[in-house]
Structure formats: structure tokens, C-alpha cells
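Field reference: "sequence" (input) and "structure" (output). Example, Transport permease protein:
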Amino acid sequence: MADQAPAAAPNNLDKQPESVDPIASAGRTFPPKGQPLIAGLNRIGLWSLYMKEVRRFLKVQTQTVWAPAITTLLFLVIFTVAMGRGDRVILGVSFATFVAPGLVMMGMMQNAFANSSFSLLAGKLQGTIVDLLMPPLTNAELMIGIVAAAITRAVMVGGAVVLAMALWPGVDLMAAHPWAIVWFGLMGSTMLALMGLMTSLWAEKFDHAAAVTNFVVAPLSLLSGTFYVIENLSPLFQGLSRANPFFYMISGFRFGFIGESDIGNTNHAVIGAAIGVGVLNLVLGFLTYRLLKSGWKIKS
């Protein structure tokens, strides 16, 4: 019919192709909001944090590894010259052999503390703490990464000190009980690494961390039987020494080298101390984790 208008042609512009979600097409969907994407242990993130911390102290290894080793060796030289003359024998070995393991353990613990006490504190002061808090790492992974890097530095310092002391005349570092060397070395480094991490959470400036080092870590290290046997002390100071956890770390580590210590001269006598320091580290680790989870002084 003439009055009938022709039918309108279909407009293809009005029909847009439906968008296709590539994730949905692959049979995958995002989890609900608030649910983490990474389930279980974030191995890549944990390894990245660990390597970041290790590379940080290796970039200045002259200051963080070799300088502490030389300082510890100087302790050996000074005390050997001052007190080791006349073929002095302690616990059946020469004075140099007696004091060497204690100095190694002391150097390891002090450097583990120094490494872990720097990370979060430097981030808080420099405004880069977000680089540690924003990555998809749990509080446990953050703690493990920092503590593991501190233990690595302690082991490196200990190895450098042992190598230097092995070349010093009069020092005989034989492994009488390798299990004690490994256990007390790791437990001592872990304890100080956890203490350093808690210090970095509490401290608001570098002076605070230095105060803990000078007034807590150094005195407990030097007054823990590193240079003497506690049997020579009065009963009061013997009791104070046995209340010092550093005493068990250093004496147990020494037992691994010379087979004798203030704790006891048999494996059974030292096993109790080994269990005790392990429990202590579990308690410190739990406290550190709770502090990190609460965000105390880092998220508020």
C-alpha cells in the first residue's frame, strides 16, 4: 500500500556484543571481598622478603659481617694475652680454647639482634614501613622473613669468627657434640632476633634500640660466663647467672666444642637446657607475633 511506510532496517548499532569475562570463561571466579587470594604460605613473598633483608646487610658486609668478626677476634687476643698466660687451664682445656666458643656465640647473638632491630625501625623513621606492610604477607610470614635473615647474618658472623680463631695459636675448636653447636647456635640467634624485632616495634628512634643494646644485650652477654666459669662466683651471683638465658646459650654452645660446660658434662645434663631455650623461643615468638598482629606502633 502506498500509505504504508517501509519497515525500518534493523540497526546493528543498538545491539552491542555481550562482554565476555575471560576469568569466568576459564571457569574461575574471584573470592568474596575480604577473603585472601593467596591460600596457605606465600612462598614467593616470604622468599622475596628474606632475600631483601639478606641483600640489605650484604651490601655493607664490611660493616655487618667482617667488622664484628674482627672485633670478636680482638676480644680473644686481649683476654688471651691478659689472662691466658702460664698455660692456664679451665674445664680441662686452655684458656683460649675455653673462651673462643663463648665469643663466637656472643658475636652471633649480638649481630642477630642488630639486624632484626633495624628493619622495622628504619622503615618507621624513613616512612618506608608501608613497603613491608602492604605486600600480601601475613604477620607470621613477616616475622619469619625478618628473623630468618637475622639468623643468616648471625651464622655468617659466626663462621667468619670461627675461621679467624682457627688460625689463632692456642685455639683448638673441635666439635665434641655437633648437635649442641647447631641447636644452641640457632636458638641463641633466634632468641636475639626475636628480641630485636620486638625492640624495633617498641623503639621510636635509633637511640632507643641502642639503649637496649648497651644496657640489656651487652651486659647479659658479658656476664653470662663468656670469660669465666660461674663456679668461681659467690652463690648469689651463681644464682643470678643461672637466671640469665644467655648463660645457657653460651655454655651449651661451648659444650658442643669442648664437651664440658657449667651446665654439665654429659648430653643428658645439657638436654634440659636445650629444651628450656627452645620453649623460651616459642614464648618469645608468640609474643612477637601478637605484637605484630595488633599493629602496635606500626599501624596506628
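The mean pLDDT is 86.
The first strand starts at residue 89 and ends at 90.
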